[in-house]
Write a structure and sequence with these properties.
Layout: H1 5-27, H2 41-65, H3 74-98, H4 100-115, H5 120-141
Helix pairs in contact: 1-2, 2-5, 3-4, 4-5
């Protein structure tokens, strides 16, 4: 019996959420370093790997369902470079005011929806996961402080 393609989407979303919870839990425990790992390092690595694999599963399942709906309006395609430049300039100007997490989520989401407007759910999850993962990498592993924003 062949399983429906939407089952892969649901399983991918479940494991994305689970990986997010594992990563959050792992960051509450001392990490240590790679040479002297603490109790939180292994769960963090497992959460990141699980998250990456779940994104692959979600992407493969979702793209196979929408493969036939892959046509984009030509007028929109012409405006993509203009929108990209405006979005990056806006990102640079608003980063200190709004903050890294919210603005990065919106930037990745807008780029994705501009390319494939019918894949809203996919790009929401991708934007969320990418933003959280990049925040963890920059702030915890590399020790780089990211802007929090004035009002958030």
């Amino acid at each position: 019996m062949k399983r429906p393609k939407s089952a892969g989407i649901l399983v991918g979303m479940f494991f994305m959420g689970l990986s997010f919870l594992i990563i959050i839990g792992a960051t509450r425990v001392p990490m240590g370093t790679f040479h002297r790992p603490g109790p939180g390092l292994f769960p963090l690595l497992v959460g990141i790997i699980l998250g990456i694999l779940s994104v692959f599963l979600f992407t493969a399942s979702y793209s196979s369902e929408l493969q036939s709906e892959n046509k984009t309006n030509r007028k929109i395609q012409r405006l993509i470079p203009v929108f990209t430049i405006m979005a990056i300039l806006g990102y640079a100007l608003l980063l200190e005011l709004i903050g890294y997490i919210i603005l990065t989520f919106l930037l990745i989401l807008s780029f994705g929806l501009l390319q494939e407007p019918k894949k809203k759910i996919f790009f929401i999850f991708l934007s969320f996961f990418t933003t959280i993962l990049s925040y963890i990498i920059f702030s915890y592993f590399l020790g780089i402080p990211l802007p929090r924003g004035k009002y958030f």
